[in-house]
Write a sequence for this structure.
């Protein structure tokens, strides 16, 4: 089953109101936010990271940060009890998420992929994200998102980007 359908079924099962937004294929947060008409901080940007914890075994994290932020690699490593975190190789990220990069949603459907969501997404009102496909997004209330994924995944894992003047 494709990820878009998994998300829809999960949200329907959890009785969450959501909107599907169909648009031109786009995976860049800045551009898709303009197309959808959402504020950049309302975009839930998903990145797959790998954490080194001193053993040869890597841990994988699906880090969700606001669109106007970047992931704080040190925070992710500390949170996971590791020494260092980096972006996972694209082929690993695609295998873990079953999505092409740019279309990864803020949901993990893989036990090997730990979900971590930046705390600032709790207060943005409405979340917008690509939903497993580059041409489909979903919008829902942030509180409803956290009702689905839980609050144990919330942490301070992002740093605001400084606007270029």
């Amino acid at each position: 089953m494709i990820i878009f359908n998994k998300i829809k079924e999960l949200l329907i099962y959890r009785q969450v109101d959501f909107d599907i937004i169909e648009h031109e294929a786009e995976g860049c947060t800045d551009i898709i936010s303009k197309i959808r008409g959402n504020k950049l901080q309302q975009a839930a940007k998903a990145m797959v990271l790998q954490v080194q914890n001193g053993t040869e075994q890597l841990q994988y994290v699906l880090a969700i940060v606001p669109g106007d932020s970047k992931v704080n690699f040190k925070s992710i490593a500390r949170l996971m009890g590791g020494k260092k975190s980096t972006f996972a190789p694209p082929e690993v990220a695609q295998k873990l998420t079953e999505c092409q990069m740019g279309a990864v949603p803020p949901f993990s459907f893989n036990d090997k992929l730990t979900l971590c969501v930046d705390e600032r997404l709790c207060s943005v009102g409405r979340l917008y994200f690509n939903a497993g496909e580059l041409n489909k997004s979903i919008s829902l209330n942030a509180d409803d998102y956290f009702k689905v994924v839980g609050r144990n995944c919330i942490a301070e894992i992002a740093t605001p980007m400084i606007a270029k003047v």
